[in-house]
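Here is the promised in-class demo. Please do not try to memorize the tokens; focus on the logic of going from shape to residues.
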């Protein structure tokens, strides 16, 4: 009787735990989605822009261009790349390209300390940033440089007003995001930069995701509805895949607001690793483009974007450095304290008509203008005069001359425009075509640019492969789903097995211990039954599983620079500060949850299954168990080096870790 009662109590207990988990999750994200979750009926307008009679010809009008750089990671301790690349960017690329303005999408500084993976705001890095901008003349040009914070610029920061917020003192914008309109005779172009950093920034490693709460969404919605523009560019440090957009108080999601934007510009992911992030771009279902830019830090890339007759084009350029990343900072040039000598720079070619058809936005751009255009147009940025330009269309040399229709570099608004007459109707067959432009300057340096175009206004595939796929995922939702599925599956499996062995203790798989050979599934179930029949192990594991979804995992000094306010509870749902019990809906906690589930629960359970009921396996697998135990312990120790010793002592994971270490020894060696 007694034996059968205890497991039965687990059923309501499990259901109550799930209910509590549901309630806490909603509390944790209430600042993002509000209490009731309603979705307004979608009303996406899919009208094509009206045809108008503006013809793309050879005149220097209806065109502007600007630049983007991202992820500078100016670092005090890590020399390769970083500041060195940025200094060359300022001394060489900026004067050669001479854009109307520059947008910087975050991670201006690195903020990483030398030891133990610690991180905070380091004043030397901010001084380097400011000095470099000062020496390059950027600070003397109003409305030229627009910078925003990235997650590295808010490591270890209790609030926007904190002393630690060096961005507030040393950046150019100094505010939370920016919003400006470029007013031209031919159109209006809006640039909205949003700061989606955590309102209180923990130190590394749990400060990777951004979020945008209800009041932020309300402000953004207001801005987007406020004024009309030919194009609106939304800028954020985080790609949408790593930014939790909440809802407006009216219940609109980001998808609803995105009807008002043409391009979402971001950084943050650098180029990922192993070539996974070479094409981090995507065309979204609500008809805007999301374009991630690789980093200045290691890859030394920057982007030039042009809007020509309302068609948006861009090109990514790598600094012409002898090695990438540059190992050592360059010596300063005469008259500068840090800016280096200018580098020789081969011509850079940005073809603006025909635009690259992988980035066509027919619901945002007047794409029909390509078909009726009279000239190929390109911007060529060069240090020296251009000697020859050759255009190849589908591999054939274009037979029309190329003329300079730009102006002098000394003019107020420099536009190095080259044009050549063409007949787009020759290419109007509904297929992809290739244009290649080569330019040689008088010093013999050669630049080349190639793109796929179409004249029918349709989009070509981006062929972004895995990069495009990764951009399309919501990484936080993936982490949450993985954790949810794994957790529920294991819980139900253990509970079902426990109830089964309680009511059928004489199951042949359990009783006939040394019976004949078993199939793999039989062996698996036999081991499960034996494992759940060990009460100490079963109940500890089961209560641990319920604990991680209903209790905080640990107490951490999440913001070490803040003596009182920095302490908080680390739940899988987010971080809750002791001060005001305020929630930080930081999706990083899900990353922790998934990793911990895999390596501290799933693999541990598998290890116990392997050694259970089979003496042979015990000695063979003992070493792996020890290695796993030491590794998981070292991870806990490492975390305590960043977020304080409480992470070790006030941590439910530490108790589980100690328990299974002890139990593994008692099973594996002693018995
Ligand atoms: C969509 O919006 C238009 C204009 O704002 C309105 O006339 C129409 O009824 C809306 N459609 C739906 C399905 O709400
Ligand atoms: C624009 O072009 C179309 C077709 O060529 C023509 O019918 C129309 O009259 C033009 N409109 C204006 C305002 O010039
Ligand atoms: C910008 O929008 C206005 C208003 O819709 C339009 O008249 C103008 O032609 C557009 N500019 C360009 C360059 O297309």
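The designed amino acids, position by position:
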């Amino acid at each position: 009787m007694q034996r059968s009662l205890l497991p039965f109590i687990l059923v309501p207990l499990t259901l109550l735990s799930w209910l509590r988990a549901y309630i806490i999750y909603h509390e944790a994200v209430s600042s993002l989605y509000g209490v009731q979750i309603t979705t307004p009926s979608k009303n996406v307008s899919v009208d094509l822009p009206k045809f108008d009679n503006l013809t793309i010809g050879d005149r220097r009008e209806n065109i502007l261009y600007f630049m983007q750089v991202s992820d500078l990671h100016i670092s005090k301790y890590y020399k390769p790349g970083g500041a060195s690349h940025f200094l060359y960017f300022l001394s060489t690329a900026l004067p050669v390209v001479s854009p109307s303005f520059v947008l910087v999408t975050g991670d201006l500084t690195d903020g990483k300390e030398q030891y133990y993976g610690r991180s905070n705001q380091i004043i030397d890095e901010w001084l380097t940033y400011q000095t470099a901008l000062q020496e390059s003349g950027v600070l003397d040009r109003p409305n030229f440089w627009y910078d925003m914070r990235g997650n590295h610029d808010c490591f270890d920061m209790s609030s926007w007003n904190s002393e630690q917020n060096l961005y507030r003192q040393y950046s150019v914008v100094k505010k939370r995001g920016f919003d400006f309109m470029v007013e031209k005779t031919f159109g209006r172009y809006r640039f909205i930069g949003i700061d989606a950093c955590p309102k209180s920034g923990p130190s590394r490693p749990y400060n990777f995701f951004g979020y945008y709460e209800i009041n932020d969404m309300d402000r953004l919605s207001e801005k987007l509805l406020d004024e009309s523009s030919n194009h609106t560019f939304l800028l954020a440090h985080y790609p949408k895949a790593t930014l939790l957009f909440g809802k407006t108080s009216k219940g609109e999601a980001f998808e609803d607001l995105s009807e008002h934007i043409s391009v979402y510009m971001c950084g943050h992911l650098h180029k990922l690793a192993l070539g996974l992030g070479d094409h981090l771009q995507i065309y979204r279902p609500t008809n805007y483009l999301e374009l991630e830019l690789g980093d200045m830090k290691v890859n030394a890339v920057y982007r030039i974007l042009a809007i020509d007759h309302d068609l948006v084009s861009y090109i990514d350029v790598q600094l012409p450095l002898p090695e990438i990343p540059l190992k050592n900072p360059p010596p300063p040039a005469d008259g500068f304290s840090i800016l280096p000598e200018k580098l020789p720079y081969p011509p850079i070619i940005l073809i603006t008509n025909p635009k690259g058809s992988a980035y066509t936005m027919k619901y945002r751009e007047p794409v029909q203008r390509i078909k009726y255009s009279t000239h190929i147009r390109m911007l060529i940025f060069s240090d020296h005069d251009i000697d020859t330009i050759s255009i190849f269309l589908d591999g054939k040399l274009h037979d029309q001359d190329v003329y300079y229709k730009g102006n002098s570099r000394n003019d107020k608004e420099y536009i190095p425009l080259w044009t050549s007459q063409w007949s787009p109707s020759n290419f109007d067959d509904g297929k992809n075509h290739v244009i290649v432009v080569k330019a040689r300057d008088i010093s013999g340096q050669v630049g080349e640019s190639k793109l796929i175009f179409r004249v029918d206004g349709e989009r070509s595939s981006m062929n972004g492969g895995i990069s495009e796929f990764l951009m399309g995922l919501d990484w936080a939702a993936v982490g949450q789903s993985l954790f949810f599925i794994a957790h529920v599956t294991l819980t139900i499996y253990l509970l079902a097995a426990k109830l089964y062995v309680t009511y059928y203790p004489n199951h042949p798989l359990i009783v006939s211990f040394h019976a004949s050979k078993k199939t793999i599934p039989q062996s698996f179930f036999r081991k499960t039954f034996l494992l759940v029949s060990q009460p100490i192990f079963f109940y500890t594991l089961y209560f641990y599983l319920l604990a991680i979804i209903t209790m905080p995992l640990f107490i951490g000094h999440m913001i070490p620079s803040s003596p009182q306010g920095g302490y908080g509870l680390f739940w899988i749902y987010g971080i809750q500060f002791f001060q005001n019990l305020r929630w930080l809906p930081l999706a990083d906690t899900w990353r922790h949850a998934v990793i911990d589930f895999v390596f501290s629960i799933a693999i541990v359970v598998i290890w116990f299954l392997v050694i259970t009921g089979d003496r042979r396996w015990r000695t063979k697998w003992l070493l792996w168990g020890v290695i796993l135990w030491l590794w998981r312990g070292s991870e806990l120790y490492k975390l305590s080096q960043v977020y304080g010793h409480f992470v070790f002592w006030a941590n439910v994971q530490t108790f589980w870790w100690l328990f299974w270490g002890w139990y593994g020894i008692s099973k594996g060696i002693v018995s």
